[in-house]
Design a protein that fits this description.
Strand order of the largest sheet: 5-4-3-6-7
Helix content: 25-40%
Number of helices: 16
Number of strands: 18
CATH architecture of the largest domain: 2-Layer Sandwich
CATH topology of the largest domain: Aconitase, domain 3
Strand content: 15-25%
Shape: globular
CATH superfamily of the largest domain: Aconitase, domain 3
Length: 464
């Protein structure tokens, strides 16, 4: 019987099918961080259980780590305790631990692909909703809760109902200034934040096949923001070239054998999806959000829609505009901003810094803007310096911080003050997400760079 890519990977990992219930799914890679793991490890300790396959588990500190002076003791006691617990638990169970100061430290969804932990056809979980990032490699990757973290640590399996299947096809050529982040925000604006609930999404079409692996990671990262369980893209030559030779990828004969399997990981021509959606890549323009969820986005040159154009949630729509202090029908162009954040598991990779630097080169940061430029890992940080990007950024008035999740969720000191506007390359613009009372405008690295230079919402296409 013909199968989708999702079916092929899922079905090959089913250990047991529970009648009228979930599947017991084997997990190839389990990634943990300091926030969702302490209680899970405590559960193991209370039950006298060890981690079953420590070699399949990888730990890194990222969520509430500082992005300045990482060589000093962490000031916040809760953060310090969580970091200490992750280190102690990792050492006790023989898990690879990449803490502050370690050369491999960084955001969990950035370092996974960098070191070849993420591979095609794998099942990957983490106690973090944006685990969907790893689906860019043709993997089934999704976030799990603390009790499920404990389940995977102890059994290397998880019980999950099999999601329905959706395919989103986008063909055509992208317009000038349109990045993978814009493609993702465009999809979410069309589907809403609940439009893919209950589905696992496969992205297909020339727009995705033409994307770099880093761009594909950005798209899959944001799958969760339209309600999907995860997203994936079939592996191709770009995928194989990206992962070849990385530390944890197969070598020699093992690589040859892996390639034989990985080359089969694509949807059969006559496979059927539960839902299929088509878009034209030419329709997409640089995007920006105006509200308090990722689905409230528009082309940057458009006006904020009127309430009567909304299909539902009228009260939520008006509450959102009130929180943002925006009005229906207003243009987003020219609105003043206070902060710019470049980073996160969505846009903290070297390609994102290249795009940002392309806009700011030869210009100066607006004096009214506070800019936080946070690489996703030490590998990214090193590349920024080696490629000469750091020199350009410094000459334009920007400083580079140290790796971490940073202002994406404001669990460290990188908090946007109440009432201030932040153009952010992260993934969520909920009320208070970047700090109590903060106002977040989600955008691409290009849009963020344009705002950082002009001090207001600016179409990046006017700057190059």
């Amino acid at each position: 019987m013909s199968k989708t890519l999702f079916d092929k990977v899922w079905d090959s990992h089913v250990v047991h099918k529970i009648k009228d219930g979930p599947d017991v799914l084997f997990i190839d890679r389990h990634m943990v961080h300091e926030v969702t793991s302490p209680v899970a490890f405590l559960g193991l300790k209370n039950r006298g259980i060890k981690v079953l396959f420590p070699e399949k588990t990888f730990a890194t500190a990222d969520h509430n780590t500082p992005t300045v002076n990482q060589h000093l003791p962490v000031k916040d006691p809760l953060s310090a305790n969580q970091l200490k617990a992750l280190e102690e638990n990792s050492n006790e169970h023989g898990i690879s631990y990449w803490g502050l100061g370690h050369e491999k430290n960084g955001i969990v969804h950035v370092v996974g692909p960098e070191y070849g932990i993420t591979q095609p056809g794998a099942t990957i979980v983490c106690g973090d909703s944006h685990t969907s990032t790893h689906g860019a490699f043709g993997a089934i990757a999704f976030g799990i809760g603390t009790s499920e973290v404990e389940m995977v640590l102890s059994t290397q399996c998880i019980m999950q109902p099999k999601p329905k299947k959706m395919r989103i096809n986008i063909n055509g050529n992208l317009n000038k200034g349109v990045t993978p982040k814009d493609v993702a925000l465009f999809i979410i604006s069309k589907l809403t934040t609940s439009g893919a609930t209950g589905y696992f999404v496969e992205y297909s079409g020339s727009v995705f096949s033409n994307m770099s692996m880093e761009g594909r990671m950005t798209v899959c990262n944001l799958s969760i923001e339209m309600g999907a369980r995860g997203g994936m893209i079939a592996p191709d030559e770009k995928t194989f070239e990206y992962i070849k030779g990385r530390e944890f990828t197969p070598k020699n004969n093992d690589w040859t054998n892996a390639m034989k399997y990985w080359s089969t990981l694509k949807t059969d021509d006559d496979a059927i999806f539960d839902k299929e959606i088509n878009f034209d890549g030419n329709e997409i323009n640089p995007m920006i959000t105006f509200g308090t969820n990722p689905g409230m986005g528009i082309g940057i040159s458009k006006e904020i829609p009127n309430a009567d154009s909304q299909d539902g949630g009228l009260q939520t729509f008006k509450k959102s505009l009130s929180y943002m202090d925006f009005n229906e029908g207003e243009s987003m162009i020219g609105k003043n901003i206070d902060f710019v954040f470049l980073g996160s598991c969505t846009n903290g990779r070297i390609e994102d810094f290249r795009e940002f630097t392309k806009i700011v080169k030869g210009k100066k940061k607006a004096p009214n803007v506070t800019a936080w430029l946070v690489p996703g890992s030490h590998k990214v940080e090193k590349a920024i310096e080696e490629e000469g990007l750091l020199k350009i950024l410094n000459e334009s008035g920007f400083e580079l911080r140290e790796p971490g999740c940073s202002a994406c969720l404001a669990m460290n000191d990188d908090k946007v003050p109440a009432g201030k506007y932040a153009v952010s390359t992260s993934n969520r613009n909920f009320e208070g997400r970047q700090g109590p009372g903060s106002r977040t405008l989600l955008a691409s690295p290009l849009v963020a760079a344009a705002a950082a230079i002009t001090g207001k919402i600016t179409d990046p296409r006017t700057l190059y």
